[in-house]
């Protein structure tokens, strides 16, 4: 959580690593989740489907650590140019971002209609064995992915807007 006594100008190394690891996994898994539709029926489908599920699975504990770490990490000062109202809005959007990521991850597991092997190695049993409930979570997964994609685009667009309008310090907080 941010505090008024914050003096650091960018996030600590652990926060920055967590941010970029999660961002990479989510952007890859989202693109590949849609590309998988085009791969259906080809010999590539199983490989990329298992890879996507495996990446999503390891992203879940990483996200939990990331969520918990927010309460312990050193605070980072906001640039003076950002108004109090804007700060509150950004913090709120980040909360919705975290929540949406967790809904995508959890619904991904709960929609599984068969067991799979994590990276082709470790067996993972599907948690729910009732097709109608799996279908319900598939719908949740589908819509939460669309919401996540929309938030992601807004997030990147906002950072780019600041960067190219003379406020590169916003992006530097996470570099
Ligand atoms: C990093 C987080 C994740 C993202 C961004 C993501 C994204 C997506 C997207 C965009 C789709 C296509 C949705 C559609 O057709 O409308 C999809 C499908 C699917 N997702 Fe996820 N997902 C994530 C995590 C997971 C997890 C943790 C699992 C389960 C372990 C999972 C299992 C599936 C399955 C089974 C499908 C159907 C296609 C397939 O066979 O791979 N996802 N995902």
What can be said about this structure in brief?
By secondary structure, the protein is mainly alpha-helical.
Instruction: Quickly give the CATH architecture.
Output: Up-down Bundle
Strand line-up in the sheet with most strands: 1-2
Q: What is the helix tally? A: 5
Total domain modules? 1
- Spell out the CATH superfamily: Transmembrane di-heme cytochromes, Chain C
Q: What fold name stands as the CATH topology? A: Fumarate Reductase Cytochrome B subunit
Would you tell me the structural class of the helices and strands?
Answer: mainly alpha
Fraction of helical residues:
55-70%
Question: What characterizes the major β-sheet?
Answer: 2 strands, antiparallel
Rg estimate, integer Å: 18 Å
Number of strands: 2
Principal-axes geometry comes out as elongated
Low-confidence stretches: none
Task: Name the CATH class.
Answer: Mainly Alpha
Q: What fraction of the residues are assigned to beta strands by DSSP? A: under 5%
The separation of the N and C termini measures: 19 Å
Order of helices and strands: HHHEEHH
List the ligand species.
Answer: protoporphyrin IX containing FE
**Average pLDDT over all residues:** 94
């Amino acid at each position: 959580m941010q505090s008024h006594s914050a003096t650091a100008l960018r996030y600590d190394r652990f926060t920055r690593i967590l941010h970029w690891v999660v961002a990479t996994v989510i952007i890859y898994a989202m693109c590949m989740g849609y590309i998988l539709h085009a791969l259906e029926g080809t010999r590539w489908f199983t490989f990329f489907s298992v890879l996507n599920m495996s990446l999503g699975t390891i992203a879940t504990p990483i996200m939990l650590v990331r969520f918990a770490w927010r309460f312990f990490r050193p605070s980072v000062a906001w640039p003076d140019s950002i108004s109090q109202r804007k700060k509150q809005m950004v913090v709120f959007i980040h909360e919705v971002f975290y929540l949406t990521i967790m809904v995508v991850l959890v619904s991904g597991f709960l929609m599984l209609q068969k067991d799979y092997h994590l990276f082709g190695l470790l067996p993972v049993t599907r948690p729910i064995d009732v097709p109608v409930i799996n279908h319900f979570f598939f719908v949740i997964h589908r819509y939460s992915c669309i919401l996540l994609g929309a938030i992601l685009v807004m997030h990147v667009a906002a950072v780019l807007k600041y960067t190219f309008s003379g406020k590169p310090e916003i992006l530097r907080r996470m570099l």
